[in-house]
Amino acid sequence: MLAHRIRSQLRPSPLLLAALILTGCQSAAFDDVAAFGDSAKTLEDDSAVAFYKNDELITVGKLQFKEKNYGKSYAIYKRAVAVFPQDPAAWLGFAASADMIGRFDTSDRAYQQLAKMIGDSPVYFNNIGYSHLLRGDLPTARRYFLKAYELDPTNETTARNLELMKNSVKFAQR
Fold first, then answer.
1. Contact indicator for 101, 65 with CB cutoff of 8 Å
2. Among candidates 143, 122, 121, 123, which has minimal Cα distance to 132?
């Protein structure tokens, strides 16, 4: 009787087992999976690219970013740049997501890749400027925003970022 009671007390509850199973599923190994289901391929396998629609990762990443799920968008864009390394949209999303979660080391590497792809575009200068704004490097941020503005004075995002810069400087002076 005593042995039965000890075994039943040592037996984990079904909820504990379920939690352990779910926790076990969230491993780093999933970072390398490029497809779902029984026929999952890894990113090292070039055939994995065939399992994605051309813009599926970008679309989902944009949605997660828009919903302010920056960690999720970071993970999705990380997979996107691995699967589609020549896609500037993937790199832009990856860099912006990295900025929003404070992974500036990662975003710097992404901006280095983007410099080779779209380095003279207003989008590039605006995004890298916002990255420096998030870091608190206001002079560098302003320099990049002004480059973006010179290339496209009608860009509303750049205009808002310059206004944000102006407000940041005024707030700092108070």
1. no
2. 143
Reading the block at residue 28, the tokens are 């780093």
- Give 114-134 pLDDT, tens digit per residue: 999 999 999 999 999 999 999
Closest to 134 in 3D by CA, of 96, 93, 89, 163: 96
Q: What is the 3-state secondary structure (H, E, C) of the chain?
A: CHHHHHHHHHCCCHHHHHHHHHHHHCCHHHHHECCCCCCCCECCCHHHHHHCCCCHHHHHHHHHHHCCCHHHHHHHHHHHHHHCCCCHHHHHHHHHHHHHCCCHHHHHHHHHHHHHHHCCCHHHHHHHHHHHHHHCCHHHHHHHHHHHHHHCCCCHHHHHHHHHHHHHHHHHHC
Alpha carbons 75 and 158: distance in angstroms, whole number: 26
pLDDT digits (tens, 9 = 90+) for 13-55: 433 333 333 223 322 222 333 332 333 333 444 444 445 566 8
Specify the higher pLDDT residue, 69 or 15: 69
Q: How far apart are CA 31 and CA 33, in angstroms?
A: 6
Question: What's the confidence (pLDDT) of residue 12?
Answer: 40
Pick the closest to residue 77 from 46, 110, 121 (CA basis). 110
Structure tokens of 156?
A: 């509303």
